[in-house]
């Protein structure tokens, strides 16, 4: 089901076979993020996460780039909310895309169809899984532009690849090819460009075939585990496990295992 905003929208939204696809749609500007796009992207991510029919989310870009960052022209005109805020000490970032993306329970796949830089890079890193088209690039060029990874990169990169590699990338402002992104641990694998969307959907469908409540709980536990001690974390895992074993899906999983057939999960 396509979103009612139509093909002229700057962010496209479609749900099919338990998969929501969100597409950044400013190909003429390399999908740079305008002020309205910030709000729309956050709203669509939340819409997908709240939809019980959605079991996986694919985030991608239209055209030859994934996202070249924030629209600096818009930033200079104040439409991104960045001007006049140098003295602010209480910025509310809870509804911005990086924070929303981090707190989603629905698994997210970034289909990197092209270059990701700046805000686009941090957004890609905020997804659970990254598949990179063979011609895609990751530009960690913040320090070359006189800024820092402002949308989660300084938190995500050390956790994804370790302090030493993260420091090397951030301090040098290096650009990685798709294969280098895989070698550094920032993408799962490269895919021929003409197969990227199909491969992303195949992976999303594989995720969607599992019990959605269990998948969401597993992601929630992984997120909590980033800041918990082992004993505390195991305790929280058992608190998640107990309601899961009372679900219809758990009963279906047991029956399917005993009957040696694929399970059909309903998310309840």
Total beta-strand segments = 10
The structural class is: alpha/beta
- The value of Rg in angstroms is 19 Å
Integer count of domains: 2
The largest sheet has its strands arranged as 1-2-3-5-7-10
What is the H level of CATH, i.e. the homologous superfamily of the largest domain? 2-enoyl-CoA Hydratase, Chain A, domain 1
Helicity level:
40-55%
Alpha carbon gap, first and last residue: 23 Å
**CATH topology call of the largest domain:** 2-enoyl-CoA Hydratase, Chain A, domain 1
Question: What low-confidence regions span 5 or more consecutive residues with pLDDT below 50?
Answer: none
Which geometry do the CA atoms define?
Answer: globular
Name of the level-1 CATH class of the largest domain: Alpha Beta
Strand content: 15-25%
Specify the number of helices: 11
Profile the largest sheet.
6 strands, mixed
What average pLDDT do the residues reach? 89
What is the CATH architecture annotation of the largest domain?
Answer: Alpha-Beta Complex
Order of helices and strands: EEHEEHHEEHEEHHEHEHHHH
């Amino acid at each position: 089901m396509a979103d009612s905003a139509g093909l002229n929208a700057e962010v496209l939204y479609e749900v099919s076979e338990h998969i929501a696809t969100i597409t950044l749609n400013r190909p003429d500007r390399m999908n740079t993020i305008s002020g309205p796009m910030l709000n729309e992207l956050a709203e669509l991510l939340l819409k997908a996460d709240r939809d019980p029919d959605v079991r996986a989310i694919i985030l991608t870009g239209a055209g030859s780039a994934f996202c070249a960052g924030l629209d600096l022209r818009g930033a200079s005109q104040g439409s991104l909310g960045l001007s006049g805020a140098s003295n602010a000490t209480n910025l509310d970032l809870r509804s911005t895309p990086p924070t929303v993306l981090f707190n989603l329970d629905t698994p997210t796949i970034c289909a990197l169809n092209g270059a990701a830089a700046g805000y686009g890079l941090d957004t890609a890193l905020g997804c659970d899984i990254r598949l990179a088209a063979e011609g895609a690039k990751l530009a960690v060029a913040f320090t070359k532009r006189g800024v820092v990874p402002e949308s989660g990169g300084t938190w995500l990169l050390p956790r994804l690849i370790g302090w030493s590699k993260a420091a090397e990338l951030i301090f040098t402002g290096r650009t990685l090819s798709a294969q280098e992104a895989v070698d550094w641990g920032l993408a799962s694998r490269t895919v021929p460009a003409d197969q990227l969307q199909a491969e992303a959907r195949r992976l999303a469908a594989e995720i969607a075939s599992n019990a959605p409540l269990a998948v969401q709980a597993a992601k929630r536990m992984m997120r909590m585990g980033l800041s918990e001690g082992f004993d505390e974390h195991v305790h929280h895992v058992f608190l998640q496990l107990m309601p899961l074993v009372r679900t219809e899906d758990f009963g279906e999983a047991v029956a399917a295992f005993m009957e040696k057939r694929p399970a059909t999960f309903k998310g309840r």
